[in-house]
Amino acid sequence: MELAQAKCTTYKAGSPPLTRKETMELLAQVPGWSLKNAHLVKTFTQPDAAGCIAFFNEIAALSTEEGHFPDVCLKESRFVEVSLYTYPAGGLTLNDFIIAARLDAKSTAQ
Q1: Cα–Cα distance, 32 to 52 (Å, whole number)
Q2: Is residue 12 predicted with pLDDT exceeding 90?
Q3: Distance, CA of 64 to chain centre
Q4: Three-point CA angle 2, 10, 1, nearest 5°
């Protein structure tokens, strides 16, 4: 499956998170992302604060379109840290990896 082309699906209450094996297989498809406290995380570098804000707005637009929202933190006016986790599932789901891949595609298109 090409994650960057996939669409998020509506999370069904009670659905389990991905297994460790599934998580590791999907992690290999999103280079630069890592696991930190069970969250999928990556820090994107921007040239300045304006670039961070523009990228943050792209994240917000994508998240709204897909109905799946990451935690986002702007740091030092050059870095945007993105952390993905499906809170209702209590872990990572396919949606987290789809958003990661789509953010990578947006970041490289800039």
Answers
A1: 18
A2: no
A3: 13
A4: 10
**Mapping DSSP to helix (H, G, I), strand (E, B) and coil, where does residue 82 land?**
strand
Geometric angle at alpha carbon 59, from 36 and 105, rounded to 5°: 80
pLDDT of residue 107: 75
pTM confidence score: 0.93
CA distance 75 to 88: 27
Q: What are the tokens at 100?
A: 């990661």
Per-residue tokens: 35: 């696991």
Give the list of residues 6+ apart from residue 80 with CB closer than 8 angstroms, or none.
43, 44, 46, 52, 55, 56, 59, 72, 73, 74
Q: Could you give the residue ranges of the DSSP H alpha helices within the chain?
A: 20-27, 49-66, 94-109
Cβ contact 40:97 at 8 Å = yes
Give yes or no for residue 109 having a pLDDT over 60: no
- The per-residue pLDDT for range 23-66, each reduced to its tens digit, is 999 999 999 999 999 999 999 999 999 999 999 999 999 999 99
